[in-house]
Amino acid sequence: MLYLFESTHIVILAEKFIRELNISYQIVPVPVYISSNCGMAIEISEGNELAKKIFEENNIKYTCF
Amino acid sequence: MFFLSKNSLSILHFYNTYFDNAATSFPKPPEVAAGIAKYLNETGGPYGRSFYNRAVEVSHIVEETRELLANIIGTKHISNLVFTHNATHAINIVLKGMTFSELARLVNDRHLKIIYLPAYPDGTVNIERIPEFLSKHTKLVVVNHISNVNGVIQPIRDIKHVLGSIPMLVDAAQSVGDKTIDADKNDFDYIAVTCHKYLLGPTGIGGLFIKNPELIFPLIEGGTGSNSGKDEQPDFMPDKFDGGTPNIAGIFGLKEAIMHKPETMYSESDFYYLLESIKKTGKYKLFSSMNKNNRSFLFSLNHTKMDCSALGLKIYEKYGIETRVGLHCAPFAHKYLGTFPNGTLRISPSVYHKPEDFEYLINALRNID
Question: Which of residues 71-90 of B touch A (CB under 8 A)?
Answer without folding.
Answer: 78-79
